[in-house]
Design brief:
This protein is of the alpha/beta class. The protein has a single domain, classed as 3-Layer(aba) Sandwich (Rossmann fold), CATH 3.40.50.300. It is 33% helix and 30% strand. The strands form two sheets. Strands 6-7-8-3-9-10-11 form a seven-stranded mixed sheet, sandwiched between helices. The protein binds adenosine-5'-triphosphate (ATP) and magnesium ion (MG).
Length: 240
């Protein structure tokens, strides 16, 4: 069973008299353990697609099965439960609370789940260590670099032990070297822990870290490429 199965999904936004077809009959399947990069011009529907995959938004038409459950039929509460259980989100702007230290930011999703203090400490420490920030636990966001803030945000997305990380422009606010570090973390999570990753990016070099590139144009999937490691470790384009 694929983790994500999207068939004929459209999303239309209406604001006043204006209708926008942000997604038009999209088909997309993501298997457990995939690492998918979504690319496309501004306004092409990438964030809309990611938000639907993450259950933050619902299709206007079509079918979406997340881990075998039909999302369109779930109540808001059930959808939130599935989201909490399966998905960690990472955003371009990090979205950390400025007056909490790194550890407290990472613990937030666990507080919402009613997990006790000692268990929160244990899990948030492990998540911060997994992104190489074990020694920055008590720094507030303003005391951290952009790349470190994004790593805290990744730790926060991991702490609930999700099956899938959804990242919207995770390196968009970072220089290319720092962006590469974030990709190394994603790569490790994907290969060592089997975590499924779907990321949106404008940058070709960042997209190349995935196993697959899905190109979106004007609300439709234009094409898909599968990328595989060559014998010397360089990426080879297999099709697309
Ligand atoms: N809440 C909304 N209400 C109305 N229209 C919206 C809404 N959200 C997005 N849109 C429209 O839907 C289209 C797709 O938007 P989306 O945010 O998915 O694009 P994107 O590919 O993520 O772009 P970017 O690269 O700039 O982030 C755009 O034309 C946008 O104006
Ligand atoms: Mg976007």
């Amino acid at each position: 069973m694929p983790l994500v199965k999207i068939e004929g999904v459209s999303r239309q936004y209406k604001s006043g008299q204006v209708k926008v077809d942000a997604l038009k009959e999209i088909d997309l399947t993501v298997e457990t353990g995939d690492f998918v990069s979504i690319m496309g011009p501004s306004g092409s529907g990438k964030s809309t697609l990611l938000n639907i995959i993450g259950g933050l938004d619902r299709p206007s038409a079509g079918v979406y099965e997340l881990a075998g459950k039909r999302v369109e039929k779930l109540s808001d509460g059930k959808l939130a439960d599935i989201r909490n259980q399966f998905i960690g989100f990472v955003f371009q702007g990090f979205h950390l609370l400025p007056n909490l230290d790194a550890q407290a930011n990472v613990e937030l999703p666990l507080i919402y789940r009613g997990i006790g203090r000692a268990e929160r400490r244990r899990r948030s420490t492990a998540a911060l260590e997994a992104v190489g920030l074990g020694d920055r636990r008590h720094h507030t966001p303003s005391q951290l670099s952009g790349g470190e803030q994004q790593r805290v945000a990744i730790a926060r997305s991991l702490v609930g032990e999700p099956k899938m990380i959804l990242a919207d422009e995770p390196t968009g606010a970072l220089d290319s070297r720092t962006g590469e570090k974030i990709m190394n973390i994603f790569h490790k999570l994907n290969t060592e822990q089997g975590l499924t990753i779907v990321q949106v990016t404008h940058e070709e070099a960042i997209a190349q870290h995935g196993q697959r590139i899905v190109r979106v144009l004007d609300g439709r999937i234009e094409n898909e490429e599968i990328l595989e490691k060559g014998i010397n470790g360089e990426m080879l384009e297999v099709n697309g």
